[in-house]
Inverse folding.
């Protein structure tokens, strides 16, 4: 039994569990006991575990693809390089701060 994902709320945990099961990986949702010690905890803080350790690597890979492509992924925006001055920009910028050139589509 290995923990594959920490969810912010129950709905996310069950979404992840359903996703894994749709790929033939058995998973369960459990309260995250390791998060204790902070006093009041969100009641629905929970984690997704794969029951078969051998399936962990595949589950981890599937989830990275799944969550990385989700609209909620805050870090999904890829960095880019300005075609004009070769400055490296982070994904949230839509124009080059060095030369003002707009981000290529
Ligand atoms: Zn530039």
């Amino acid at each position: 039994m290995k923990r594959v994902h920490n969810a912010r709320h129950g709905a996310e945990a069950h979404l992840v569990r359903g996703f894994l099961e749709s790929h033939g990986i058995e998973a369960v949702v459990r309260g995250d006991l390791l998060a204790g010690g902070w006093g009041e905890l969100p009641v629905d803080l929970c984690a997704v575990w794969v029951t078969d350790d051998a399936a962990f690597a595949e589950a981890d890979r599937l989830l990275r693809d799944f969550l990385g492509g989700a609209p909620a992924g805050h870090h999904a925006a890829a960095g880019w390089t300005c075609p004009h001055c070769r400055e490296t920009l982070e994904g949230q910028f839509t124009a080059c701060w060095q030369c003002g050139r707009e981000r290529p589509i």
User: Anything to note?
Assistant: The chain has two helices and five strands. The helical segments are 10-22, 56-68.
